[in-house]
């Protein structure tokens, strides 16, 4: 019986009719090492996240996933966590504690295992992965490779049957990536754990894999052994063939009757056998594209830098030059100081000693980003995203510069075409795949039309198809005299396209030279081609070098823009789904209305009438239970996820914090504004819950009393009415209408209820005169409260609605 069975799995994200996954079917047997490959945006991450229920994205799904014959939906979170381990692409995203030893123990503690078992497993994993030397270190002091290895060890401490990894080496330098994959191979061979790993760089992963699954446009195209899939890709002319290991690409381009090599060792044997019957040609000499006699565009001379005054020097007397029209690649291990070097070039960091010059001018005398001469792509592309759609994000780079509409449209259309963003314009930048985010960030940088480009890991997350396109973009820019400086772990890309490579080690440039000189002298920090061919072709560092020497021709097949997988623009939900949702909302609203408008007032009256307000905490808890009743009944029916509860908890926390921060200003608090916005965005029940819980929790800071149930009811009813009126479309969510509703709510609903409560709580025999007097005396403070509520709504509503609406669409929250 198969360990994992994926049966006719289809999936599409909210608002998309095009399926991200389409009828995927496959079986994975125990102990297999499976490589999941495919172009950027092909659905690899989406498929992997379906293998863990807690990570499954929200959307329309069809099909079944079975683990040992049991559906994942029936397995239970605890059992699933113990059987399926998941390692994310970014090491930082998975670390949750401050110490290495605690990180290893955290998952085991969460499962409530015995202390002795925890100690035993932690010790075993630390020994197996060689973590003893940094066992007591702070997590933040580790290198990227150590962090990812720690994530793997933490997952393996749970003793999973199956290990799923989503591009785990994407952030690692070549040596750290090799160490990580070696550990992964040991886990598969020695522990018999099933491994499913998605990777863009297949150079080292593919030879390890017993089976390859190839996804494209959401469909499973091929499933088989590495050699079989490689031969099938060659026959079909599929663009993914260019992502396969160099020995396979060389074999495909050179006619021979020899079998297809997969590993470097296979490739060495193939080349030796080929050379016995064929004469190898001499590889042309590689010349630098520019002369070092011209003035450098960027120069660092004897630079020293440390982040803290008493800290360790990151850079120690580093000197380097980059010339106009040159592509300079800076390489080195994680933590070597490469990103710090870019920070000095961009002016974000100031050297303690040494000079940083741009076109011969000290950067300390230049303006911000060198008066428009510089474009910077950070390591995390999300740092550049500020708008809610790709098109708006691109347009933001050109606004406020006095450009005509024609010039703006021309620049936008050019960069959209270059970076293949046409089909992504209406999507939220944060909802793109890793490679698509990288393309968008690059497009934003290119719109600045800089003279010097500083790019930190520009090929991260990109498939081979777009790497070739990126090289063409670079070639066009270099032809215009633009200087490009990249920091990269992508050795193959640097060897193929860089004009000069520099290795940063121990705070300085250890060596530099042309790619052929640079990589041919290294044993480990070099390309697979160099390791494969150095006995016969010592200067060969790229597949093209070996193909030329063998007299072959490099394949040029490439998909056209029309053939590429495209994401549909965001559209409204299907009419049938919308009708069902509306019907469901009406039932929820009716049920919640009965509880909120009848049951809760009766509870408060019962407390006043029979308990003399002395059991106010008991009454508050009853109101809280009644508040949460519709919430629980509805949510239990659709099995809520933690992210939904977290959202409501965060909104409550924001409201409580807002009341605390503005405590010194009577009635000038953002609580009511946040409650109204929450109700308008998420619905009446959520609005009531947030209002009521906020008052209960915040009164723990400002003292509980008989007034607490009244405050809970008053704030809750405001949130509920906001949901009924704005969330269900009876009023538009424009700031003007929201402000009017906020003013009305503060004066007549919240103020009216609490003014009434003050009479009932403190007068044994309330009269209408007392009630009217209380309303009149409370009116000035109610007006202040109303004005403050309107101001907070005016300035905060658009931002919060944008965030909440995106969460609703992406995760299906609070609907």
Which tags fit this structure?
49% helix; 6-stranded mixed sheet; 815 residues; alpha/beta; 14% strand; 29 helices
Description of the structure:
With 815 residues, the chain is an alpha/beta fold. It contains 29 helices and 20 strands. It has a 6-stranded mixed sheet with strand order 6-7-8-3-9-10. It has a 6-stranded mixed sheet with strand order 16-17-18-13-19-20, with helices on both faces. Helix 17 (464-479) links the parallel strand 17 and strand 18 (483-487). The longest helix has 44 residues, at 768-811. It is globular.
Mean pLDDT: 82
The main β sheet shows up as: 6 strands, mixed
| Strands in their spatial order, largest beta sheet | 6-7-8-3-9-10
CA-based gyration radius: 31 Å
Q: What structural category arises from helix and sheet content?
A: alpha/beta
Number of helices: 29
Number of strands: 20
- Overall geometry comes to globular
Distance between the termini: 39 Å
Q: Unreliable runs, pLDDT <50, ≥5 residues?
A: 555-585
Helix share, percent:
40-55%
Hey, roughly how much beta strand do the residues contain?
5-15%
Topology (elements, then pairings):
Blueprint: E1 4-12, E2 21-28, E3 33-37, H1 44-49, E4 60-67, E5 70-71, H2 72-75, H3 77-83, E6 84-87, H4 100-110, H5 115-128, H6 144-156, E7 162-166, H7 174-191, E8 194-198, H8 205-208, E9 211-216, E10 219-224, H9 226-236, H10 246-253, H11 264-277, E11 298-305, E12 315-322, E13 327-331, H12 338-346, E14 353-358, E15 361-362, H13 369-372, E16 374-377, H14 390-396, H15 405-418, H16 434-446, E17 452-456, H17 464-479, E18 483-487, H18 491-497, E19 500-505, E20 508-513, H19 515-520, H20 528-533, H21 543-549, H22 575-610, H23 616-637, H24 642-661, H25 671-682, H26 684-702, H27 707-727, H28 735-762, H29 768-811
Parallel strand pairs: 3-8, 3-9, 6-7, 7-8, 13-18, 13-19, 16-17, 17-18
Antiparallel strand pairs: 1-2, 1-4, 4-5, 9-10, 11-12, 11-14, 14-15, 19-20
Helix pairs in contact: 4-5, 4-6, 6-7, 10-11, 10-21, 22-23, 22-27, 23-26, 23-27, 24-25, 24-26, 25-26, 25-27, 25-28, 25-29, 26-27, 27-28, 28-29
